[in-house]
Amino acid sequence: MGDRVLSDLFAPSRVAVVGATESEGSIGRAIVTNLRDDFDGETVPVNPNYDEVFGLDCYPDLASAPDVDLAVVVVPPHVAVDVVRGAGEAGVENVVVITAGFGETGSEGAERERELQEVAEEYDINLVGPNSLGVMSTPLGLNATFGPENALSGSMSFMSQSGAFITAVLDWANDEGLGFKDVVSLGNKAVLDETDFVRAWGDDPDTDVILAYLEGVEDGGEFISSAREATDDTPIVMVKSGRTDAGAQAVSSHTGTLAGSDRAYEAGLEQAGVLRVDTVQELFDFAQILAGQPLPEKDDVAIVTNAGGPGVMTTDAVGDSELSLASFSEDTLSALSEALPEEANIYNPIDTIGDADIDRFAEAVDIALADDNVGCAVVLSAPTAVLDYGELAEVIGELQAKHAKPVAAAMMGGERTENAEETLREDGIPNYFDPARAVRSLDALATFRDISEREYEDPTRFEVDEEHAEEILSRAKDRGDNRLGVEAMDLLSAYGIPTPKGAIAEAPEDAVNAAQDIEGDVVMKIVSPDILHKSDIGGVKVGVPDEDVYDAYEDLVTRARNYQPDATILGVQVQEMVNLDSGTETIIGMNRDPQFGPLLLFGLGGIFVEIIEDTTFRVAPVSEREAREMVNDIETAPLLRGARGRDAANVGSIVESIQRLSQLVTDFPAILELDVNPLVATPDGVQAIDIRLTVDTDEL
């Protein structure tokens, strides 16, 4: 699916409503009425049963109607596909299918939805829905929905997977005076999905902020790349509902256990530059400030208040955020002490005290914003008899414009704030009853500044032996089992991830020969795809001298047979010893997520991985910068850098191993999950000691 041009979807000059009617309580009636009331263009009813609807000429089908740019389909499900085909034949490029009864209703509906996709593809139709509330665009007064009211105009564009959520949000936003540019109800996303709208709105000069309420993302990789492009200058704020770990497959790897689907969303959305929020309130708190305020050059906040208690609350909120409290310069402090009474506090947070009138308050805000150490400000006030909120709102707007630094207001109170809020809104300044919300919103501005400045680099491509890797993976298919263990160590070698010297012996004599090729004592491990936790059953022997290798082989096989008589035993791995004392055990792994694809994991490894759970995730493929961030993000990263007199590990080689693993799992979609545990990191480099993976044998 290439980049679709959606401008006519939101700016049609003529809209047809197929299934238009005057029947009370019908959706067809609601949509015609909404269009007739507000739409600047022409509304064309289509219904073979009427000659006219609400005084407008009504046509039997799209073929006989005048040319339309957008068709809204409100007919029963069994005829909807034929109507869309008719739209294609009539050359209509944009179609919104309101009708439900498709993929959300079971197998018959799913079949109908597939037909709809095929028709849309055949005629290259931009199709919204099915099962959609419709679309809106305020510049033309377009309300092609069956919602009860139109949106106010503004610069936020909003998509939602839930139609009911849109009606609730619009009802609330209209009371709050919040406006939108475009609104779309995604419905079942049969053709157009969130990625298409991110692209369209990212290119739209009239959309300042993209808002989304999503239950899922159709294609994570596509979404990440289009969102990265959009967030160069257009922020995306999203509520992603459904935080549960409904993992895609039965999970047998550590990575799979730790990487529930919400982890993939968290990682994917972060890499895409999306601001993910948990609540609808935050969605609009962030949206308002992003649409109305400049980005801060510094993360240091000044707080100006007339109330000590709320000032302390605001300071606490700064402590919980990524922002910091600004330190004022000497000039600022002397200007403040001149401007304020003796009992006022001139240090941050500035307390102008309860008897502050408008002039004193204004002077304090002006002095604070003028300080070069200040990146942004919260102006906080409790109602007093000497302070008029309307005047304060005007002053805040003037001073914000004068200093061009972002400001959030927290005028606490009820009715008396209403007119002041309106004044602030006209200047693009949001007002929050709770000062902690003001701080979180300024924090979102600073986060978006960092996102918009990000440089995305391409992943490194390493020289690898792809053929050898494929041959190893196909062994699982030959064996009729989808799991591989240490017998697949060569898979890592083929992709340049260092492994200790070793071999897999199928008889005790082979083990003895293998041990003689290796210097010093050896490690021996049972090789069985059915025995996952080898050390728990005594399936591992460490430091075996050459003369004991024969007996050790037989002992390991006997133990495995006693533990699990039906287990497939492929032999015993004989491996050179790796000095664990000078190294740190880490884990690198991958679990394939249904939406985002390969999700990489890095963390502390060995036996601690599931106990401590100090892990970090990214969606592959990753660049060197992202791989390095993974290593730096874990809480135990200081261990790797040589804390407490330990030898520092060679972090560069860990970073490279993550990148090589990223390339492996991107090259082979058949790998569903993979763990390298432990990957021992020493001052000299890394060694992959053990591997297990699951493959989809149908993909090979």
TrEMBL record:
Reaction(s) catalysed by this chain's protein: acetate + ATP + CoA = acetyl-CoA + ADP + phosphate
Q: Which Pfam families match?
A: ATP-grasp_5, CoA_binding_2, Ligase_CoA_2, Succ_CoA_lig
Molecular-function GO terms, alphabetical: acetate-CoA ligase (ADP-forming) activity; ATP binding; metal ion binding
- Looking at the record, the residues that make up the ATP-grasp domain are 489-525
The keyword Electron transport is annotated on this UniProt entry: no
Keywords associated with the record = ATP-binding, Ligase, Nucleotide-binding
Q: Which PANTHER family match?
A: 3-HYDROXYPROPIONATE--COA LIGASE [ADP-FORMING], ACETATE--COA LIGASE [ADP-FORMING]
Q: What is this protein called?
A: acetate--CoA ligase (ADP-forming)
